[in-house]
Design goal:
The structure is a single chain. By secondary structure, this protein is an alpha+beta fold. The chain has two domains: 87 residues, no CATH class; 150 residues, Immunoglobulin-like (Sandwich). Helix content is 36%, strand content 31%. The termini are far apart. The model has no long low-confidence stretch (mean pLDDT 79).
Length: 249
């Protein structure tokens, strides 16, 4: 009800302004009054009602709507600008998980998986914390903790292997040092999954979702869909450990 009253007050305010000689409608009022004062023309009562009551009322409604529309557009642009400022002051991660190196341990009956992960930050500087993963295959569907390996481990292909040290895990690096805007943190995280998962991983039957959070506890995810062991590539800073003689340069 208050909105209706405010709207009518605005409309009648414009109409009164026109009748007082102001605005666009005031031109018609001034011309009519001048012609009648000079006895050059007298406006019929019916035309007077149509112009100064009906037309002015309709015109005042349009002016009121137009002003409200402009004000709403300005408000929307201000909100959009404010949202942009707020967004620029928040982290914005893009997480990708594009390769794995894995190994099954028959003693523990667990499969160790090293997942290559990149975290690109398009927003404000932030650490990446609370790392977890989810493993899904035809035979297993469960959340997995990201583990911290105490010892270094060798995993990889037939000719060469990856030397992975637990203290160099990506989740530890990004918890200790913020990822700057426009920069990416690249490395590996380690998870252990119950059972022998080598076949599922090699056949692309396993989906691994990697999750982390920024300092505002907003969660981001990256998905690895599996593939052949030959897909494993060295990440920046990694040096291969050759099982045989390295290829000649």
């Amino acid at each position: 009800m208050a909105d209706v009253i405010n709207w009518l007050a605005t409309v009648f305010g414009h109409q009164q302004n026109w009748l007082s000689g102001g605005g666009v409608g005031g031109i018609a009022v001034v011309i009519t009054a001048t012609l009648q004062a000079m006895d050059l023309w007298k406006m019929p009562k019916r035309l007077y009602f149509v112009v100064f009551v009906v037309f002015f009322f309709v015109g005042s409604n349009y002016v009121a709507w137009h002003e409200e529309h402009l004000a709403s557009g300005i408000k929307d642009r201000q909100i959009e600008k404010l949202n942009g400022i707020i967004a620029s002051q928040q982290p914005q991660f893009v997480v990708t998980a594009d390769q794995t190196a894995s190994q099954y341990d028959p003693k523990t009956k667990m499969t160790l998986i090293l997942i290559g992960v990149a975290v690109l930050n398009k927003g404000a500087d932030s650490v990446a914390i609370n790392w977890t993963a989810h493993y899904k295959s035809p035979t297993l569907d469960m959340d997995i903790d990201v583990v911290r390996l105490v010892n270094q481990i060798l995993l990889g292909q037939e000719a060469w292997q990856i030397l992975f040290r637990g203290e160099e895990a990506l989740n530890l690096k990004t918890q200790a040092e913020a990822i700057q805007r426009g920069h990416a943190a690249i490395g590996r995280i380690a998870i252990t999954v119950p059972g022998d998962r080598m076949s599922e991983l090699n056949k692309g039957q396993a989906l691994i979702t990697v999750r982390c959070q920024d300092y505002l506890n907003k969660e981001y995810t990256g998905l690895y869909s599996g593939g052949m062991p030959g897909d494993v590539q060295l990440l920046p800073g990694e040096v291969p450990v050759w099982k045989t003689h390295p290829p000649a340069r």
